[in-house]
Each structure stands twice: as C-alpha cells, then as structure tokens.
C-alpha cells in the first residue's frame, strides 16, 4: 500500500520506518527540513534502539520524506502523528494536529479516489470531532459514511514504549482500529496485515472515540499501578521492609501480575504524565474529578523529594558535591521529557549543592535545559570526587560500578531505581527497600 505519515517524532518515525519494513511504500511528511533531510539520508531524527537500522535499510526505496503534502493524493491511507502539547492545566493543545488535519483535507480536495485519514496522535475522545471537522473544512465536504463520501476518518492509538518501540510495533499485544465505516476498518486491517499474519495479536474493532479512550485507560491504569506500588514501597521503607521482596510475592497473584511493580522514583517520559493529566483535565471539563488518578500524580510527583530526604540523612547537602547517575526518564532512550532527574536537580540546586551529572545518551538534551550544570564524560568521572551519588535512571552499566564507588572517600549511594548492588564499605539507601 501507499501510505503517508505526517509528523516524524518518536511515534511518526517508528511508524513510518516500520511500515516501510513491512513492505508498504511510505512517505513521511514533516515541516522540519532537517528532519526530512535526515530521513532521506537514512538517519533517524530520534534516538531509539533499532530505528536507525530500519530507516537506513528503507530510505530511498520504500521510505521517502518530504515537507510537501503533494504526495498525499497518491496514497490510500494517511496517519497523523502530530504532537499535542500539554497546556498549564494539563489539557492537550490540539491546534497543531487540527492544522495538519485541515491541510490534509485541502490536499485531498481535488482527488476522486477514496482515502482514509487516521489519527495516530494520542487525543482525548472529546477532541476527535474537532479534528474530523478540520479535515472537512479543508476538504470542503463531509467525511465518508458507509453509504457516501470519499474521505473516511479513523483512530489507531499506539502502544509503543520508548526504548523498545520497534520491537513493540513488530510484536504487538493488541491492535485497536477505530472507525465508523466498514471500508476504513478494512483499510486498517490491510495496513497491518503482515503483523496480523505473523503474530496474531488481539484486534479490537470499535469507533474512534472508544479507540482513543482505550489508549488513555491503558496508560492511566499503568501509571496508577506504578504509583500504588510506590506508595506501598514508601510505607515499606518506613517499616524497615524491602518493597521488592513484597512485590515479588504479590506479583504471583494473577489478578495483579508481576509487571510494573518496580517501586522507585516514579514515571516520566512523554506518555504517562501527559496522558494522565490530559485525562484528568478532560474528566473535570465533563464534570467529574478522578480522585484515584489525581492521587497517582501526587504520589509520583513526591518521589524525588523522598529521594532527597534520604540523601539528607547522610550528607549535609549544602556545599556538597552530589553526582546524579542517569538523566533520561528511562534507560534505552535519550528522552528527558518529565524525567525524574529534573526535579532532583532542581531540589539539589535549592539546597545549594554542587551537582555533577552523567547519562550515556541523554546529556546533550539535559544540557539544553540546564546549561550551567556540570556534566561528566563517564559515570566513573561523575562519582570520582563526589560526596554522594544518586541513582536516577537504571542503566545497566551502573550495576558494574562497584570499584568506582570505592574510589569515593566515603561511598554514599542513594538508589532511586534498585539499579545497583551495594558493596562492602558503602553507605547505601534504597528508596523503597
């Protein structure tokens, strides 16, 4: 199939390159000329394991990039993967997505062939009619129904985790197809036919609004589960118990499951904070206050402060040199959006500490936010002269730092991720164990 993907961020680039790998002819459309040039040169504009290889393997053949919408009419399906930034109240700003939707409608206005426009961006259900209306405005006619119309509308939420996005795409647990016409559903099934044949994921066929809510419910549930285990972990710490031992036991209950029971500093990134806050804001706008989701956010926001409180038990923080190991919101990515390292750095600055930081891949991104911070070239260099070290991201390479920690005058390590094994002579505190 000929497919367009509008937007070349994490989701759009992964989608475009993966669909090209499946054998489709894909055109990536983005307003950033540097991004377009990178894709055409065979380089991914975002850091994601395996994505560079996919882009390099397909660029110039099944994957091309452009800043123009001129190619839109040659395709049968277009995915909109435009970012929807958060407003101060947590609600999402769909203006960029609506603008792209209207341009899409304009590009399809003079064609006669049928076309499916699919929202891939994460959008709260009440916002979908505005996006559909934007397409109609550009198109100059109503969207298709089962009996009439050329351009159909659909929703296909993504369930990709940064750091494993390519694997998640190629081996999905489920595929959610939201559309109001049988033709649109058939097109989505055709797009993902190779995955349906190879891996037989669960397929949910529904309307666009329900498809959208499935994504939000998915992320909200996982965010709440992490906050609950963190809340329980905080209690365990006060009782002098190891939350990980307890989590191993409760994870054996198939009603609970073992995943997302790693207590610690909490969640960050581009999805959980944004989606949880957006759902809370949308619910409030509809007249309902979701108490559990609000509590999940509150617990998550408080975890960095608990880490710093543990540090203060062992070090006079003011004037001390504190090493932060890990800046990305999770290992395997350079993404610092909503990273727990940010409030940790801010808290240390408020306490007048001297901060040195290291991350294997995210340093350049964090330097843009904290240009005056001292950054080390290695974990060993970060902790060499430090009075204490904080484990903020659980990169595998930190596990083998035993000898380096022993080079500290009096090794003090506060671990927010259960990322290292304490060694003899080390003063070690786990956040919830």
UniProtKB/TrEMBL annotation:
Q: Which Pfam families match?
A: UDPG_MGDP_dh, UDPG_MGDP_dh_C, UDPG_MGDP_dh_N
Q: Which GO terms describe its biological process?
A: polysaccharide biosynthetic process; UDP-glucuronate biosynthetic process
* Keyword NAD in record: yes
Report the EC code(s) recorded for this entry: 1.1.1.22
Q: Which residues bind substrate?
A: 159-162, 215, 260-264, 268, 330
Q: In which pathway does it act?
A: Nucleotide-sugar biosynthesis; UDP-alpha-D-glucuronate biosynthesis; UDP-alpha-D-glucuronate from UDP-alpha-D-glucose: step 1/1
- Do the record's keywords include Protein biosynthesis? no
Residues that hold NAD(+) according to the record: 30, 84, 122, 162, 274, 337
Single annotated GO MF: UDP-glucose 6-dehydrogenase activity
UDP-glucose/GDP-mannose dehydrogenase C-terminal domain location is 323-422
**Which reaction equation describes what this protein catalyses?**
UDP-alpha-D-glucose + 2 NAD(+) + H2O = UDP-alpha-D-glucuronate + 2 NADH + 3 H(+)
Q: Which InterPro entries match?
A: 6-PGluconate_DH-like_C_sf, NAD(P)-bd_dom_sf, UDP-Glc/GDP-Man, UDP-Glc/GDP-Man_DH_C, UDP-Glc/GDP-Man_DH_C_sf, UDP-Glc/GDP-Man_DH_dimer, UDP-Glc/GDP-Man_DH_N, UDPGDh_AglM
EC class: oxidoreductase
User: Which residues constitute the catalytic centre?
Assistant: 271 (nucleophile)
Q: Which UniProt keywords apply?
A: NAD, Oxidoreductase
Q: Which PANTHER family match?
A: UDP-GLUCOSE 6-DEHYDROGENASE TUAD
Q: Which family does it belong to?
A: Belongs to the UDP-glucose/GDP-mannose dehydrogenase family.
Q: What is this protein called?
A: UDP-glucose 6-dehydrogenase
> What broad taxonomic lineage does this protein's source fall under?
Archaea, Methanobacteriati, Methanobacteriota, Stenosarchaea group, Halobacteria
């Amino acid at each position: 199939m000929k497919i367009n993907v509008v937007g070349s961020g994490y989701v759009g680039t992964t989608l475009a390159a993966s669909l090209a790998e499946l054998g489709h002819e894909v055109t990536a459309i983005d307003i950033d000329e540097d991004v377009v040039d990178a894709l055409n040169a065979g380089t991914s504009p975002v850091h994601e394991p395996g994505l560079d290889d996919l882009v390099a393997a397909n660029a110039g053949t099944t994957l091309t990039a452009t800043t123009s919408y001129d190619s839109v009419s040659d395709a049968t399906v277009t995915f909109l993967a435009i970012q929807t930034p958060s407003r101060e109240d947590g609600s999402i700003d769909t203006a960029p997505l609506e603008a792209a939707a209207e341009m899409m409608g304009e590009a399809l206005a003079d064609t006669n062939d049928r076309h499916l426009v699919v929202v891939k961006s994460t959008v709260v259900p009440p916002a979908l009619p505005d996006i559909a209306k934007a397409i109609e405005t550009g198109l100059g006619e109503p969207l298709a129904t089962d009996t009439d119309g050329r351009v159909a509308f659909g929703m296909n939420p993504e369930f990709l985790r940064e750091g494993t996005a390519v694997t998640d795409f190629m081996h999905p647990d489920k595929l959610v197809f939201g559309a109001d016409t049988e033709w649109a559903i058939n097109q989505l099934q055709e797009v993902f036919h190779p995955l349906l044949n190879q891996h037989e994921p669960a397929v949910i066929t529904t309307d666009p609004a329900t498809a959208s809510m499935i994504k939000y419910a998915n992320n909200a549930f996982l965010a709440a589960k992490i906050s609950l285990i963190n809340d329980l972990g905080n209690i365990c710490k006060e009782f002098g118990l190891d939350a990980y031992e307890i989590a191993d036991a409760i994870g054996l209950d198939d009603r609970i499951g073992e995943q997302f029971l790693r207590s610690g500093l909490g969640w960050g990134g581009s999805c959980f904070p944004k989606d949880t806050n957006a759902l809370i804001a949308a619910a409030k706008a509809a007249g309902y206050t979701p108490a559990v989701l609000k509590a999940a956010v509150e617990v998550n926001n408080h975890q960095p402060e608990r880490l710093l409180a543990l540090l203060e038990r062992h070090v006079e923080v003011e004037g001390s040199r504190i090493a932060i190991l890990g800046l990305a919101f999770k290992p395997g990515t350079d993404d610092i959006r909503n990273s727990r390292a940010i409030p940790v750095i801010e808290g240390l600055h408020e306490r007048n500490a001297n901060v040195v930081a290291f991350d294997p891949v995210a340093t350049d991104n964090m330097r843009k936010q904290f240009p005056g911070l001292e950054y080390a070239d290695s974990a060993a260099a970060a902790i060499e002269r430090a009075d204490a070290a904080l484990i903020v991201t659980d990169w595998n390479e930190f596990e083998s730092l035993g000898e380096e920690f022993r080079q500290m005058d009096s090794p003090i390590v506060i671990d927010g991720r259960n990322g290292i094994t304490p060694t003899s002579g080390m003063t070690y505190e786990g956040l919830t164990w």
